[in-house]
Amino acid sequence: MLRFTGAALVAASLAGATLAGDVTHFTLDNGLEAVVIEDHRAPVVVHMVWYRAGSADEVPGKSGVAHFLEHLMFKGTDDLAPGEFSKTVAANGGSDNAFTSYDYTAYFQRIAADRLDLVMGMEADRMRDLILSEDDWKTELQVIIEERNQRTDSDPAAIFGEQRRAAQYLNHPYGRPVIGWRHEMEALTRTDALDWYRRYYAPNNAILVVAGDVTPDEVRALAGQHYGPLEPTPGLAPRQRVSEPPQLAERRLRFPDARVAQPYVMRTYLAPERDPGDQTRAAALTILAELLGGNSATSVLGRALVFDSGCALYASAFYDGLSLDDTTFTLVAVPAADIGLDELEADMDAAIARFIDEGVNSDQFERVKTQLMAAEIYARDNVEGLARRYGEAMATGLSVKDVTAWPETLMAVTEADVIAAARELFDRRRAVTGYLEKAETGGTQ
Amino acid sequence: MIRFALGVLAAAWLALPAQAAVAITEVTSPGGIRAWLVENHDLPFTALEIRFKGGASLDAPGKRGAINLMTATLEEGAGTMDSQAFAEAAEAIAAQIGFGANDDAVSVSARMLTEHRDAGVELLREALINPRFDQIALERVRGQVLSSIASQAKDPQSIAGDTFARLAYGDHPYGSAIDGTAESVKALTREDLFDAKARVMARDRLFVSAVGDITADELGVLLDRLLGELPATGATMPPRAELGLVGGVTVVDYDSPQSVVIFGQKGIAMDDPDFFAAYVLNHILGGGGFSARLMEEVREKRGLTYGIASYLVPMDLAETWQGSFASANEKVAEAIAVTRAEWARIASGGVSERELADAKTYLTGAYPLRFDGNGPIADILVGMQISDMPIDYVNTRNARIEAVSAEDVARVARRLIDAESLRFVVVGRPVGL
Q1: How many CA atoms, within 13 angstroms, populate the side-chain half-sphere of residue A441?
Q2: Which of A239, B70, B199, B294 keeps 20 to 30 A from A20, CA to CA?
Q3: What is the pLDDT, as a whole number, of residue A21?
Q4: Contact A337 B289 (CB under 8 A)
């Protein structure tokens, strides 16, 4: 049994005895990497396949094809009729779905542990044997356009996010939305989807994650049986994308929309991601985000903007280091009634300048570390979350070792590391600042 | 090419997945507070779920939004601590404490590390027994709630939900948003929050579950310390809501390329003998993801939406059968027509033996998968208690699903499903409606 005995001790015990101890990693001859996470508390298993192919790997002009193919993967194969995959999972009491991001596309099922063989057989089948009829792909194209209608075009905050991201990445494909630009989505074809599929859906481009009530030996045997015979795609080199040129000028945008009731200001800075064997800067940025915006009542921005001046209803900071290429560090502030976004932005900048000048509050620093370590214990209650953690890390270029080392890396961060990271990060010349605003009645932009 | 034997598949459909081993104990504290417990020492923390039945529907007349605002202000200072001191104390022991309100309950969710459980209980006790509701904290939270009300007034999903609720329940508390209106929230005072707390947070409507690293004896002591000083009784429960829904289409004009749709008719109570047949019926009609008829007809065959679902909504004081989807303005009329046709088809034609068998294997197989962590189990346990289910329900639930016959489903479909009585609320610029 695990004991919580202060942050430093827990760091050692967690990374050593528990997380790493329950995780096994192996690679099949055809290049398929596999991770097994044991958790025998419930007779449940999560089966995931992550492909190292996301929207940032699309060729210009074909935005949305990664996500389109994700939808088409639920059509038939040589062995399964269209829709039969999900129907079979459901008829066995399981649930299944998939998601696409910039760096990966992933498929997962959650099902009783004694049905692992069944779902693995079907997942292996559709890795190489997808069949797309004319009707299938044309109807599904309408579905993804409805998805874009629902998730992006009906939501001013989502449109605003898309525009800010396009401004953030001038050259790198992270500037394109995962779902695709509408005019390019409308022109996608069956050939586009199949070209994508044949290149990227292969065992040497996939990561298998199985978590729950299984043993590594069981998974090794089943994976060898189902995925082992699949042919790899020859000549698939590690991904090398174009990089951003140095940003020399601050970028700013305003998006007024009649559907906006609550304006806000959001700023992103280009920031380094977690790299294999080199997660130190990312760890400092993770703790910086917690200190600046983790809890509205105790964080630097929450105290300054929500409590002391009262000019904000909400203020926060976000950083996600799981990314193949340069990621972003985000600041957001929502103004109180009658406060302008320019005034709020100035207060936000002043609070950050004061933070860098005065240094880290040591009590807050200890509390943040305590929270991060406790989060590792709470995370063990959710085996699907653990599976995602490993899958996402490995699909963005990290190793199992990097994932298990992460808690220790976080605990090793010092107050000085955080301030150094902040000084390097907060340069307005490398920032995109956006105002989401109410549309002025009768006015034009 | 991969082959798998169809014989094996068919056999798999017949066998039920293993049941989750969840041993539930009823614990009564020395002071007489009852709770359900699942003891599990694998991880060094305990998940605690507390519910106060009645929820925001216990708002006093003219005080709509008081219970929601009160609940949101519980964590903003208690005893000797102001908002920030309370948050710092929780962070220092990594206690995760959340408060929420809905139409039927005020909920308290906590996760506490075993190492710091005593300190966590003292902290949570202060919030439950001695909240301060300081004026400065009240104003801050009020500002957040007013912002949320303004945002919801421009959000098509919220507009659709509010419109449907008003049509269905009129002047009953269910007929309006629990947030209240800008006017009602602006008028609330600190005294109103204390009154709201007394109305809902009382022992006569209290339900508790605990899951994780705690024994029955430890839980007994915890319950008395944490909850023993709450008042014995709260406000009288509101009456049942009269359902005012009639068939037809309500369009709310909203400038957007896509229309958001909520539809519904009368539903069925959880203690109705036909509830499980209705539950299976709904799964086949619109509940089961990609395998449901509505998803097949509206999305898979015609590409009219990204997603559509139907669901039973058995609230404490009224029951509806609802569904929702979103479609481009040019397509929404067709999507509504297809939905109505499916509603009528199942009412007159029932379901096939194959559909029934697939629904049963899914529903019985999926049930044990829900019990996969301390937090989720605690949530299920408190829900069972508030719905007045027996403590052995976990072991009998799948048998009740299995007992449903195709005749039962067809009978319940005839009794309940009525395409003519479906009300559609459409928020957008629909063409041809």
Answers
A1: 1
A2: A239
A3: 52
A4: no
